[in-house]
Sequence to fold (175 residues):
Amino acid sequence: MKQQVKIHQVKGNPNNPRIIKNDKFKKLVKSIQEFPEMLKLRPIVVDEDMIVLGGNMRLKASKDAGLKEVWIEVAEGLTEEQKKEFIVKDNVGFGEWEWDMLANEWDSVQLAEWGLDVWENNDDVDDIDEIIDFQEDVNFIIKCENIKQLNELKDKIKTTSNKTSYNKFIELLSL
Fold:
């Protein structure tokens, strides 16, 4: 059941791996300021403890927009596993992922089953320069399953690739 509550009653989910930042977040704040009624059409989904399952960024943007109340929908009776599944499925297509949190606190097989594109290690790849050239963003690095794998890839790039590729890899690591 949809209901309107005081914004301070709703608690952001500290385990939410999805973020919207910078210009995209500013656009979200602006859209809420210009059309706050949309929040009634797509309420923030919370559990029985008023912790957000769907709409963390809308809650944050609503606060930044100066709203005093927000529309919520309480999802009752969900297991912890269902709550985690809901968080991912609700956000598959928008925003950016908090990859470190996903890698450390979520099961990659389940994430893939729920619709998130999760990288699989492909040991058949011979030309690491092709990978670096093909993958122009930090997602390439995030797709490594753990620090050991990332360090092995770093060593492989350093020994088999040109200095430009290695420097690009190091640059991506710092993002």
Notes: Residues 2-113 form a domain with the Conserved hypothetical protein from pyrococcus furiosus pfu- 392566-001, ParB domain fold (CATH 3.90.1530). Confidence is low (pLDDT under 50) at residues 121-126, 131-138. DSSP finds ten helices and six strands in the chain. The two ends are 41 Å apart (CA to CA).
